[in-house]
Specification:
It contains 11 helices and 10 strands. With about 250 residues, the protein is α/β, with parallel strands linked by helices. It has a single domain (about 5-100, about 160-240), classed as 3-Layer(aba) Sandwich (Rossmann fold), CATH 3.40.50. The strands form 2 sheets. Strands 6-7-8-3-9-10 form a 6-stranded mixed sheet, sandwiched between helices. Strands 2-1-4-5 form a 4-stranded antiparallel sheet, covered by helices on one side. The chain starts with a helix and ends in a 12-residue tail after the last helix. About 40% of the residues are buried. The chain binds adenosine-5'-triphosphate. Adenosine-5'-triphosphate binds near residues 33, 53, 54 and 248. Adenosine-5'-triphosphate binds next to strand 2 and helix 3.
Length: about 250
């Protein structure tokens, strides 16, 4: 029997940020992208990271996950400055879902779950709709089912923090709602979530607060209620048109 995350974390741990970026700058060789970011996520909250294409959201997640090294500033993971790579952070409770759905298409749904050292019943608790699909090769699943498989595998391991990049990419609104509901339920059980999403109004329905990025910087942040009163401005300034960094050398 698994123990709910909320039962195992002590209060000090709950009150301090799980992950923090302080003055974080990051990018690729010769391409600075993210500038002076201050971001934090605590247990039990879903935090949106929103912005137009090229604003620097994926670069931010990659840096928080340990896949990119900061060029300045720091990432603190569970209160300590951390330069460990992703696989080490994963062992200490960081779950990361990249933009690409990471399923093995030649393996069945059940095999995909077991390969991730996961319990099939734990995934079915989160997404019971996968039960009739357990014997089906993952390559034959719909995009939504593949994403449920990816997300279910990560959530079933009960990470302390989930970094999720465009869970909803290319999926129908009904499926997106289902995925986001599962994320919200996991956060209600104590997990922290940083959610990069293009379906902004749907994302805000499950977020407690959000950061708005433009050109590699966080330019606006607030609670969901605050941001929802400014949706027209947000749509115009942050979500339409390219948001890429001015520092990028090409185009
Ligand atoms: P999207 O929603 O399109 O993924 P994003 O907000 O996640 O956008 P990033 O993917 O972080 O933005 O990209 C930010 C900037 O970094 C863009 O100008 C992009 O072209 C550039 N970039 C991304 N990946 C690389 C890379 N591997 N090498 C060089 N530049 C890159």
């Amino acid at each position: 029997m698994t123990t709910a995350r909320t039962e195992t974390v002590d209060r000090t741990e709950v009150l301090s940020p799980l992950i923090e970026a302080r003055g974080l700058c990051s990018g690729y060789t010769q391409v600075p992208v993210v500038r002076e970011l201050d971001i934090e996520v605590r247990h039990g909250e879903v935090v949106g990271l929103l912005g137009a294409n090229g604003a620097g959201k994926t670069t931010t997640l990659l840096t928080l996950a340990g896949e990119l090294t900061p060029t300045a500033g720091a990432v603190k993971w569970k209160g300590e400055v951390c330069d460990a790579p992703l696989f080490r952070r994963a062992r200490t409770g960081l779950g990361y879902i990249t933009e690409e759905r990471s399923v093995f298409s030649g393996l069945t749904t059940a095999e995909n779950i077991r390969v991730g050292d996961c319990d099939v019943s734990a995934v079915l608790e989160i997404f019971p709709e996968l039960e009739p699909r357990l014997g089906v090769k993952a390559g034959m699943l719909s995009g939504g089912e593949q994403q449920m498989l990816s997300l279910g595998r990560v959530l079933a391991r009960k990470p302390a923090l989930l970094l999720a990049d465009e869970l909803s990419q290319g999926l129908a609104p009904l499926v997106v709602r289902r995925l986001l509901r599962a994320v919200r339920a996991a956060a209600d059980g104590g997990m922290g979530v940083l959610l990069v999403e293009q379906h902004v109004s749907q994302a805000l329905k499950v977020c407690d607060r959000a950061y708005l990025m433009r050109r590699g910087k966080v330019e606006l942040s607030g609670t969901t209620d605050e941001l929802q009163t400014r949706m027209a401005e947000i749509q115009a300034a942050y979500l339409s048109g390219p948001g890429r960094s001015d520092d990028s050398p090409q185009g």
